[in-house]
Amino acid sequence: MNMQTYINQLIKDMREAAKQAPAQKTLDDAKTPEEFEEIMEFGHTGRNMEEKTKTLAQLFGIPSSHLPPAEKLTQSQIKTLIDEIEKLWTAYHLFPEVPEKAPDELHYNALKKEWDEEMVYVPFGWHMDFCDGNCEECQFLEYCDTGQEVLSENIAPNEKEPPTAEELFPRHPNEDNFIPGIYNYCNRWCERCRFTDKCRLYADEEAMGLHDEEQKPGKEDLAEQLKNSFNKTFQMIEFIAKDMGVDLEEPGEDILKEEKKKDSRAKEEPLMSKANSYTKNVSIWFTENVDKTCLSEKDDCLKNPEIIEAFEVINWYHVMISAKIFRAVRGSMNSEDEHRMYDANGSAKMVLEGLKESGKAWESIIRNLPEFGNDGLDFINQLTDIEHSVLKKFPEAPDFIRPGIDELKTDE
Ligand code: SF4
């Protein structure tokens, strides 16, 4: 086979692989408690990271050996392959950033080399900049303005002054109005929240354009923002740890194993299985009855705001209930840690609210769509059963006062 025929086949394979790429994920897309938890907490806990470690070869199903050595390619073939490879990466929400001035051969070899590197693949989008901060040994130094600048100032990037408290925690113009930690135990339904002007998280997300349909960032911008946000979170954690004299060493293998065991035990808790069944059953019910039948065929459904409201509420909480139960159950496994137990009770309190609201929504479905009466009753029974189990496991949850949300309710 001549090289061009080979390349044509390789391009075909890459385009096929691109079609298999998973959709980019945002919070709105979480379909399972794990996905929800992952999106909410990725970057904070790094939970189950090792399970997500893959090479690009595994991800695409194309071994690196299928990419021909640059020296066997013509300039135009190299250009074509760079273009196709980058399209493939972008389909998987990975955005390569090679300095523009880098010659094509170097560019191609860098992409090829990355093929067998292990990485944690999370489909939120990720910029890959081939920069490890070691400018002196970087293959792109000659073509990289930042690297040149850093070396001309004679400062290694990793020796740069760490960010100050003011840089990491800048005062927001609305700072005095914020309720500390309000976002920790809320239902994350910002669109409907009456505390948006009191919530730092909302303010930060608003600044990123996440609450404005017209300003919502595109896929690449979102990936960049997530990356910056994770980096900032790590810097904040480092800063706080240093301030408290805590050494942030990588946890040892024993600790990671122990944490994994706790994750598995939490997933096996009977309360967790009840919550997961509810999430799964509601998803199936939506697909079978709402997506396919009700909303598509029954115009009345779409005209009745009560029904729409009930569907929205059920839909909003059905994943969150199990995700938050997992967080509560998992946190309670470290009951000797006061903060973890506090957090577990806070999550359980949010779950109780979700159960109550979902129950009311199912009652509305029964009232307005009697043909779903039996299904509605069945779901209400599932919710009641979960509620009993939550109250048994977290008897202090009903008295938990969520910052702002319950305080203001009490004051009213
Ligand atoms: S408190 Fe309100 S505004 Fe803040 S994250 Fe929660 S739902 Fe959104």
What are the salient characteristics of this protein?
58% helix; 412 residues; globular; mainly alpha; two-stranded antiparallel ribbon; single chain
Detail the topology: elements first, then pairings.
Blueprint: H1 3-19, H2 33-41, E1 53-55, H3 56-60, H4 75-91, E2 94-96, H5 104-114, E3 118-120, E4 126-128, H6 145-152, H7 165-168, H8 200-207, H9 219-243, H10 253-268, H11 270-297, H12 299-303, H13 305-332, H14 338-368, H15 373-393, H16 405-411
Bound molecules: iron/sulfur cluster (SF4).
How would you sum up this structure, described in words?
- This protein has 412 residues and is mainly α.
- It has three domains: 127 residues, no CATH class; 79 residues, no CATH class; 151 residues.
- It has 16 helices and four strands.
- A two-stranded antiparallel ribbon has the order 1-3.
- Helix 2 crosses helix 13, helix 4 crosses helix 5 and helix 11 packs antiparallel against helix 13.
- The longest helix is centred in the last third of the chain and has 31 residues.
- 23% of the residues are buried.
- About 2% of the residues have low confidence.
- The structure holds iron/sulfur cluster (SF4).
Helix content: 55-70%
**Principal-axis shape:** globular
For the sheet with most strands, the description reads:
2 strands, antiparallel
Class based on secondary structure composition and strand pairing:
mainly alpha
Number of separate domains? 3
Count of strand segments: 4
Count of helix runs: 16
